[in-house]
What we know:
Strand content: 35-45%
Strand order of the largest sheet: 8-7-6-5-4-3-2-1-14-13-12-11-10-9
Number of helices: 10
Low-confidence stretches: 1-9, 16-31
Distance between the termini: 55 Å
Shape: elongated
Largest sheet: 14 strands, antiparallel
Number of strands: 26
Structural class: alpha+beta
Amino acid sequence: IMNKNFTLKLLALFCLLITTKLGAKDVEFNLNNFLDDGTYYGAYVGKQKIGYGFMQASIVEKNSIEHFSYTGSFFFEFSSDNDFSTTEVKLEYLFSLENKNHLVAYTESSDDRTYRSLQDLNNKNYKERQSSGLSARYLGNDSYEIIIDGDPDQNKQVVELPVLYTSDFLAAEYLAQRGSEKGELVEVLVGDINFWEAKAISIQYKVLNIGRYGPSDNEFSYYEIQAIDDETPHQKVTGQFDVSGAMISASFSGIDLKREPESVAKDKALDRNLYSLGTINVTSPLIYDGDFSEIVLELHSMGMRESFVENDRQSLLESNEDYSLIKLTKGQNKTSITSDISVEEFLKYDAKYNWQSPLITSLNQSLDVSNLDDEQKVKYLLDFTYNYIEYDFTLSASIDEIVSNKTGDCTEYAQLFITLARLNGIPSKEVSGLVYNYDEDAPGFSQHAWVEVWLNGGWTEVDPGWNEFNVDASHIQLTDDYYFGFDDKIQIVSYQ
């Protein structure tokens, strides 16, 4: 069952998450520009999904007065040898629209339940339930009234606490929105309030890294920001944000959150999207004067080492307790295979690669591929996909949305290419891993997705997002269950 300490960890995370909703300098202007309909996040421990979170910023009316409301909810499922348990936490920060937009009310509730079996959990037939809650309201003169549910000794108390202003509460968003430099710090004396212990929390925000992904003419930037509070300085919260300040993912106390569509976030059977942002920095850039034909690397992360795919382009040279030494080479026209394989499944259509969609069939009719052989078709479709889509980090998209919006990240490039390739008789499938980012200021390997196509009796790696036929040695293919870790490390040994 969840305890108060775990709730406080969620509060630290929630404080970082919602700071991405508004910029303090913008509060004085048109607040409606910063409202949102809410964002869902899948929650993971390692590769296992344990629940989801939801955040929203909105204007609400309380006692005929409008306020800014920042709400969040978290739902987790845990299991042990003896039982199953669930935890649901709901939070709301309510800010005045006057007097520097200070915090006027806060509410929190948690509901913990245990079940004897998975069947009881599915039927919501719990054997034990424990609920708790807290509310606080500002009385003026630096004091708050706190009410703790179910505690007759401390049911109502008035405590002196410094006022929490949105300009402090939302300080982190400046770092992402304003084009901050790597290493930049913001320290806030009152970044949040722990009403359980009646104390203000100071928070330090730091830009750990500025990631850049994609070719220079189609680049996407994002920020990795860390939050450390004075209550639990050893429990660091790290998040990834786009340049508008919207959070993409976060990591804290062994739990990882990743932005997902509602249907994916709420379904434990559905894993996170194949692609997510993440860059593993290296100490110095690769000097680029054309395609890399060979790169030798040390992988110092167990996750990368276990997920490394050995094939004709990628080989494991050495492995010890500290690292795996690997060699990457440029792709060939044909990736040979050692056994028979059925490729029919990679011609099928489904919800993701729906080549029966009228939008896809209409788009395909405009293409000039009928007189091309398979290899020429692949090269034609690579060039078409690369020029059709404009790069933008995308939560997820249907094939019709990709065709209509003409935007997406590497998964959308792969999705459109695969759909068109299958429609034109080319077996194809999505693969993923890491790719060198060609960024001289922040060199590293970024998470990426690309494609394998079946040509001449073997699989050939192609990259629609970079318009590459036979990918160069900068691509590291990993299994699709690889999970990016902020502590992953790659060391460059040699390249040519």
